Amino acid sequence: MTPSKEASILKSIADLRVAMELVNARQDELLSNVNERLRDLTKKVTELTKEVARNQFRIASLEEPPKPTISNRKAK
Prior knowledge:
rod-shaped
């Protein structure tokens, strides 16, 4: 192998390493963004789940028959 061919190969290897480092850095950045968004969505789902539970409790309490009181006992 000629020295110029070897130098060309070594330069290509160095260029590929730089490119891989850039790709890895971008991948880390994207993964960080995805994780942050996932945390935000998880919080939102938790909030909505609590709200649904509160609303279900309210609906259930509205559907319960009225408890007997002194005034409706006299009416019967």
